[in-house]
Write a structure and sequence with these properties.
alpha+beta; 2 domains; 5 helices; 9 strands; 22% helix; hydrolase; ACTMAP; protease; aminopeptidase activity
Length: 223
């Protein structure tokens, strides 16, 4: 079921050798940074903040990355999958509209989306409702780090991913007891995979590849 984990704890403070902490500038609660930190991400404050908190790519851009911004939508009730889908269509189909469709089609009773196959069907309906064309919705099974998935993310694709959420929203294995949906909106390959690797950290929400700790999938939790 779509159980909402408690809010994540505050980020760990940098050590004494780390750059200055992130501070708020008072204008729209946007973070401000040391002007020399993560300048490659200056056009995306949320991406820059996440990289800062997780201590990656301080001084130079990653080997490859792709990031798409989506406006957050507050989840009400057990509707994490519907909220994630609404975000994916830029709010053109609201969670309430998607809930009505999902109930009518027999996909859900209260908002939980237990079937990935039904989620694909609902996604197609959502994009049609939002009048967004040239979108190909497919169901993929298996790990997130296939060469095909990485290539698609680098080309701008996004993923709706069901997973077990730990207390800080990071992925865990709890036999579906804390089932949740996330919108994966990009990918960061820190270094050239043929040369070196990097330490895994958690982003706004990261899905770190434990077999290849050079690759990160930034995403957004619905809370």
């Amino acid at each position: 079921m779509c159980t909402i984990p408690p809010p994540p704890p505050p980020p760990t403070l940098p050590n004494i050798n780390s750059p200055t902490n992130v501070q708020k500038n008072g204008e729209g609660n946007q973070p401000s940074f040391d002007p020399e930190i993560c300048t490659w991400a200056s056009k995306h404050p949320e991406l820059r903040e996440a990289c800062f908190k997780n201590r990656i790519c301080y001084e130079k851009p990653p080997f490859k990355y792709k990031y798409r911004y989506f406006e957050s939508i507050l989840q009400i009730g057990p509707t994490c999958g519907l909220v994630a889908l609404s975000m994916a269509v830029n709010g053109e189909a609201s969670p309430d509209e998607l809930l009505s469709i999902a109930k009518l089609e027999g996909y859900t009773s209260n908002g939980e989306m237990f079937s990935c196959k039904n989620m694909v069907k609902l996604t197609e309906k959502a994009y049609s409702l939002a009048e967004i064309d040239n979108v190909n919705c497919t169901l993929k099974q298996g790990g997130l780090y296939s060469s095909e998935t990485i290539e698609r993310l680098l080309n701008g694709a996004v993923l709706l991913v069901p997973y077990d959420a730990d207390c800080n929203h990071s992925p865990c294995l709890k036999n579906g007891h804390t089932a949740h949906w996330a919108l994966v909106c990009g990918i960061i390959i820190v270094n050239d995979p043929g040369m070196t690797t990097s330490v895994t950290r958690k982003m706004s929400m990261y899905f770190p590849d434990m077999e290849n700790p050079n690759t990160y999938l930034p995403g957004t939790c619905m809370t």
